[in-house]
Amino acid sequence: MPVSKFIKNISNQWVNLIGNSAVFPLETRIFHSISIGLVVLAAVYAPYNFFEGLYVASISAALIATFFYFQYYSSRFRGKPHSNTVFALTGILVFSVNYFSNSGINGSTDLIWPSYLLLVLAISSYRQHLLWVIIYIVAFFALHLVEYYYPALVKHPFDLGRGQFIDRITAFPIPVITIAIIIIFIRRSYDKERSAAEDKAATIELRNEQILRQKDQLEQSNAEKNKLLSIISHDMRTPFNNIQGYLHLLNEIKMDGPERLVVERELLNITDQTIEMLSNLLYWSRSQMEGTTVDLVEANLLAILNKTIEIEKTLATKKSIELNCRIDAGITVVADANMLQLVIRNVINNAIKFTPQGGSINVDAWVLTNECRITVTDNGIGVDQGKKDTLFSMTSGSTFGTDNEKGVGLGLPLCKEFMERQGGRIDFESTPGKGSSFFIFIPLSTLSI
User: Fold this and answer.
1) How confident is the model at residue 325, as a pLDDT?
2) Are residues 77 and 166 in the same domain?
3) CA–CA distance, 360 with 378 (Å, rounded to integer)
4) 252 and 177 in one domain?
5) 330 and 185: one domain?
6) pLDDT tens digits, 325-361
7) 275 and 306 part of one domain
8) Strand 360-367 versus strand 425-431 pairing type
9) In terms of Cα–Cα distance, which of 365, 277, 276 is closest to 312?
10) Which of 107, 111, 271, 437 is the right S-S partner for 377, CB 3.0 to 4.6 Å?
11) What is the 3-state secondary structure (H, E, C) of 44-76?
């Protein structure tokens, strides 16, 4: 049998003897250990003292073994708590008898007094400690005073040479074993409590982290809710009010020629902006409340984006912006077609919004190692330095384009979320006053690698 397994078996047997920590408190388990130790020691010392002629010591050892066996059995197996008082007074009685029958101050009894008091303190409650210390000190001094004034009461069953040597050698293990048992229990109990405290601290720290994460999520949810309410209460109301105003104007005032064309053009612009707002709002609301199902397929990139880019070219033409597209017909990507179209549409719409009349926008696609990079570059007004860090967040806020086009700040956060759901990403570079470049990365199909 391996040594480790043997030690484990011994440890399990010892736990069975003294009781499990889940059932018995530390003081009771120490008492069980002490009782077992005293019974074993007494079983050795009783016959030894008898053969050495120390009859009183032999009888005392036998009585101690019997007494503590019943105390142990009653506590361990019958569930009756041990008596600290009986334990402490039994020690004083036995040591008093043994003191006078075993050479008094020249015997080994004085070695055992402190260790037995340590046992008493280990198994008794804190409020009893001072009392037992005083009682044991008084008893100790009383015995020595009695011997001092009445030395004839002390019996000397062995000589000062060999007999005293054997007496000390055989008595010394008692306090040593006693102290070892108590220290082992105290150390183990301390280590167990420390481990439990560390586990508790780790659990509390983990809970705190979870609470902080929940707090961040709630704050983000709050910001999104406030954003949604702001869009509904203001950003969506404003264009409808403008549309209503233009319709009233057309209904009440007769307009012909250039004036009517200007009003109708403004009405069309506001309608287009409102549709864009509403589309992004609906997509974002659905993704937040219901979640969005991602349908990833291998598809030709140009086939996915061709219709979207043609529509965007029409919008760019209305603002006299040149929109160029250079996408290789052989590029195949893994994407959700609807999500990718929405992302490209939003990015190009932003480029049109922030590019002045007469500007240009280029849409290019490049094959990298395992992904395709779609680049949308404009020569518009660019992004302010202060807005770069929040451009893809819900805190970016609404903005106005070069022709006073109004946005609600949902487009780019929605693009970021949709690209991440497809296993891609979005990034940008911008120089204020010179333009911006947005980079959309999407996984390549194995057909293009």
Assistant:
1) 92
2) yes
3) 6
4) no
5) no
6) 999 988 999 998 888 988 898 899 889 888 999 899 9
7) no
8) unpaired
9) 276
10) 437
11) HHHHHHHHCCCHHHHHHHHHHHHHHHHHHHHHH
Concatenate the DSSP letters of all residues of 96-108 into one string. Answer: HHHHHHTTGGGSS
Q: Per-residue pLDDT tens for 389-445?
A: 778 776 655 566 666 665 545 678 878 888 998 899 999 999 888 899 999 999 998
Contacts of residue 48, Cβ cutoff 8 Å, sequence gap at least 6: 58, 170
**What are the C-alpha distances in Å from 212 to residues 209, 216, 221, 382, 385?**
5, 6, 14, 36, 30
Q: State both tokens at 273.
A: 């902006």
Torsion sign over Cα 211, 217, 221, 226: positive
Task: Report CA Rg, the chain.
Answer: 46
| Enclosing domain of residue 321 | 295-449
Assessment of whether the complete model's pTM goes beyond 0.90: no
Query: Does 227 reside within a domain?
Result: no
Give the span between the Cα atoms of 236 and 277, in whole angstroms. 8
C-alpha dist (Å) from residue 203 to 214, 286, 430, 444:
16, 36, 45, 43
266's CB contacts (< 8 A; 6+ apart) are: 246
Specify if 166 maps to a domain.
yes
Residues 138 and 141: their CA atoms lie apart, in Å, by 5
Q: What's the total number of domains in the chain?
A: 3
Does residue 158 share a domain with residue 45?
yes
The two beta strands, 371-378 and 360-367, are: antiparallel
- N- to C-terminal Cα separation, the chain: 60
User: Same domain for 283 and 149?
Assistant: no
Are 316 and 263 within one domain? no
> To which H or E segment does residue 137 belong?
helix 126-149
Helix axis angle, 237-252 to 258-289, nearest 10°: 150
Strand bridging mode 322-326 / 425-431: unpaired
Residue found under tokens 């490049």: 366
Query: In the chain, which stretches have pLDDT less than 50?
Result: 234, 408
Beta bridge partners of 438: 376, 428
Instruction: Give 427's strand partners.
Output: 439
Task: Sort strands 360-367 and 322-326 into parallel, antiparallel or unpaired.
Answer: parallel
Contacts of 251 (CB under 8 A, 6+ apart): none
In a domain, 58, yes or no: yes
Write down the pLDDT at residue 134: 92
